[in-house]
UniProtKB/TrEMBL annotation, chain A:
This is Putative tricarboxylic transport membrane protein. Pfam families: TctA. The keyword ATP-binding does not apply. Residues 20-438 form the DUF112 domain. The chain crosses the membrane at residues 20-49, 61-82, 109-135, 147-163, 315-335, 355-379, 391-412, 469-491. It comes from the Bacteria. PANTHER family: TRICARBOXYLIC TRANSPORT PROTEIN. It comes from Ancylobacter aquaticus. The keyword Magnesium does not apply.
From TrEMBL, chain B:
Keywords: Membrane, Transmembrane, Transmembrane helix. Signal peptide: none annotated. Residues 18-153 form the DUF1468 domain. This is Putative tricarboxylic transport membrane protein. It comes from Ancylobacter aquaticus. InterPro entries: DUF1468 (IPR009936). The chain crosses the membrane at residues 15-35, 47-68, 88-114, 126-144. It holds the Pfam family TctB.
Amino acid sequence: MDTFAALGQGIMVALQPMNLLFAFVGVMLGTAVGVLPGIGPALTVALLLPITFQLDPAGSLIMFAGIYYGGMYGGSTASILLNTPGESASIVTALEGNKMARAGRGGPALATAAIGSFVAGTIATIGLALIAPTVVDIAISFGPEDYFALMVLAFTTVSAAFGSSVTRGLTSLFIGLSLGLIGIDLQSGQARLSFGVPDLLDGVEVTTLAVALFAIGETLSVVAAGARADEIIEPVKGSVFMNREDWKRSWKPWLRGTFLGFPIGAMPAGGAEIPTFLSYALEKRLCKKPGEFGNGAIEGVAGPEAANNAAAAGVLVPLLTLGLPTSATAAIMLAGFQQYGMNPGPLLFATNPDLVWGLIASLFIANGMLLVLNLPLVGLWVRLLAIPRPWLYGGILVFATLGTLGANPSLVELGMLLLFGLLGYVLRRYDYPIAPVVVGLILGPLAEQQLRRALAISVGDPVVLFQSPVALTLYALSALALFGPLLFYVFTGRKAPVGSDED
Amino acid sequence: MSDSRPSSTAGPDKGRFVIAFALAILSLVVGWDAWRLSGINTYSAVGPGAFPAIISAGLALLALANAVEAVREGAQERPRDEIGPMAWVLGGLIGQIVLLAFGAGFALATGWLFAATAKGFGRGPVWKHFLAGAVLCFVIYAVFAKGLQLALPAGPLERLI
């Protein structure tokens, strides 16, 4: 019953008028930015993070929750109407959704995505509220060596799940880890890799890196593609409401998607794309009219979109309870916590219960708001899609530099934005995933801290790392994540299905 | 966001070779820094150089792995990138930094960024977009610097308000 009391308390926090306003602003901003083509939730959150600097922690995190969910909704609108998934978890949505839009059924596609997201988000948020305290109870007994093993697991799964090969994923991860080294080492006070540049002593800002990789890198890729990447917006014809048959065909995929998405998202294996692919495959098999798949089957939108949103809520389980980000968006949210000097993890539930539960409660509220706002406002969002690309990308760069300058008004910071932007372009050009870089940057220093803590307790004896059963299990899982695709290939002769691209 | 699967032809993939080379250099830099740090006595079981040493080793292995994949997968046919538009966008970003360094202020510098990016995407004329962008950025400055207390760089225009 404790959970419900805490959640009730959280709802009281979230229902305060100011916090409702923050949730509303977050939802609107998140949807508006997320709907812009090529911008996924990760970039949405990174771009809007500086705006929340001046707010109080609870208010800004609640706004964040709104931005996160809003960005997800906006992303699915863009993929359905424009066939430009802003993130890899929307690729599958774009597959069937865009076909539906072309067949003049864009309205029902958007509706099933919106309602499916609401259903999945609500169930998954309940799951989050129920599971989180249990995970916290377990996590409280974790030693530093277990935490280190947990982070190794997050590293390997993030690198193996994203990108076209494990080598590429690990390369991205290690670039992020190297960037994470820059700055003053907090335990010894030594400056590392700062080459005498004072601006580097504080380390690389997660938001700067994320904005550079996602916004500048993406802009450079798109402009370099020139006329190659022309997009067609599908107009929303007819009613946005679903008919009886649409409902009948949608509700089961919503639920199935949710139950695929939430557990996979909640595992430290992370990533929302795997459940979307699984859900798509499952719906294709169960569908009574398999011929429609590939030509705009509503199940192919309802299932994956629900899986996507359930996984997004699932990702918050390791983030809030263990401080473990398993997606680029979660990494940026972690940076959001850190800007208030808070570290998500079991302790946060004890020290700031109002804030954590307020955040969880506001996820429900954000979800509800989105459902109410999105379908009536679809015309507005469609108009945002029609912004000419020169202005759109000009605006994206203006806001990218605005956010960077707002966080740290220094020209060195802008220079880093440019350099990392070029890095992002090169990574994209050669099919290296982006998310592991961001996760490596934020999780690297945390992993080092746990490693050194564990070794300090054992007075430098590395055997301590491999003694606890928890740690050993986690290492076994990491090995499976790294070599699993290889084994899959050996046994079946086929390449394992992996997600690609950012987030 | 690659829109076409590259197909392989004969010879190693030069681009990925360059990436492997860059990783090797990064590994050396990180390793050198770790070596420098290991010389400093810090009175703890694990000094500040231990973790960088692990990462340096990892980078070296990845440099090797990338080089091997570059040879094994062969040269990839990648769509040609257009240099001109990219140069405009990069010029916009660099120009913004230069303008800010000379104290032009947020509105003018970012107005230039907007104009150059729009030009890169094929929409001119530059001076019209520059004016529009500067006005837009001036409004943004007013909202963010005055309303949200963000410390954005001020120039002659911004000091007027």
